[in-house]
Fold this protein.
Amino acid sequence: MLHDMFTIIETAIKETTGVADALLVDGGEHADLASTVAFALARQKRQAPVKIAQELAADLARRPDLTGITIEAKGPYINFIFGKAYVSEILRAAVQPGYGNLPKKPVRVVLEHTSANPNGPLHVGHIRNSIIGDTLARAFRKAGYPLEVQYYVNDMGRQIAIVVWGFDNLDNKQLDGEKEDAHIARIYIAANREIEKDEGITQQVNTLMQLVENGDPATVKKFRREVSRCLDGFKVTMKDLNVAHDRFVWESDFIRNGNTERIINKLKRIPQAHEDETLYLDLSEFGFENKYVIRRSDGTSVYAARDLAFHAWKGANFDRVIDVLGADHKLIGAQLQCTMKLLGEKVPEIVHFEFVSLPEGSMSTRAGKFVSADDLITEIRKRAFDEVTTRRPELDEETRRSIAQSVGLAAIRYDIVKVSPEKSTVFDWKEALDFERQSGPYIQYAHARACSILERAGSFPESFELETEQEIILAKKIARFPRVIDNVVSELRPHILAIYARELADTFNTFYHYEPVLKSEGQTRNRRLTLVKAVQNTLKESLETLGIDAIHSM
């Protein structure tokens, strides 16, 4: 399969040339894989890349480990084209449950995502974090890594202190039918309005922060109660988005267990530490102009100190530490990475993402201007139900609602994850639900079509010997799936999988247009049905890794 073939060819090029990088890439329309290594060797050998490519292609063709692969030089490029035995092997693997699973790895991974402040509902801006993080988590598990997914609960910050002040001092009755996180947001917004009118409240909030850090039992109980209620609301939203966490790690625990104080004492000993009224790090030699404050003048630690303690704990317990953070955390993330390196601790990898918005505009929980993820889910389900009803009016309402729920989930998750994290995006209601375009429902529809073909076909003997150009093109697209999973986890770019799934659906639809399946006969029918089974299985594995339901009927 492609993943294995890539490794074999890469090793052969390195052994033949002595280069560190085989410069092996997707071969596009002309080959399965291609190498540009001749360009890298041109200066060293003082020869034209075209001549080097010709000689190297001839040398590689003589290697016994590359038997069955057509190797040819096309100008300065070396192309590798796989034969029928490769295609047959693909099909045999792709019809098996769990296709795309990679070998088990010993590397323990911890992935933190979402970690929104518990002061109001998750909004559209937050859920890109959740969906990117959850898709990465699914890909890591498929790639064979032991993984723990964590949510870091900010239960000590100023925003939570404002919430607690609001519950202590304002009318805090929960409205009928009001979700817990929506209740928290309403009190938080009202408290901020009171602070704007009376600056004296700020000191009361500061006092709450001092009390909670010093472990005052009554204050700790208040903070924990309101944060827990908000998290209960978050969990409902994330379940609706098919997002799950293995562990919720509380920020305050790193005060209680002494880890924050230990990291502060360690920081004091590095040359970049300075202490006047505050304790801060001067990281200007690394390009950071602002002070990296660790402890306030009143003796309380800031979020950065507790975050450093959290990351030191993660580094001690896991081999690979990954955070998913918004673009507004780029400075904080870079300062964290720099400081962890100075301390000799494991440095986290950070996936930064730009924000997703709606055509309605930007959002702010503090100002009370946001579209909650719950509202988005409700609206997309309604629109999905209308679309399913238009397409399948003969189905009973319960069935249509079930399909609409899966289609709505696909619309949200796919539309958000299909864009590379570093690009901002606007969630387009109409495009996300378009069954005919580059959407999650479009991929689901391709899967449902494959299921329908197999159901109508009944039983058939599997046949793995493909013949026509369209059959082989589709099989070779299927072959890319394990390699795509590997690329997602190595590059931390989940949109690669989203693009692949859509391309596979495209390739399948093209095949279906040109090659009759159910109307064909004999071995032709058997091999095409086997190919459809492989497509259905690969689409299923792709969709489930994207966190999308692989439904059988739409």
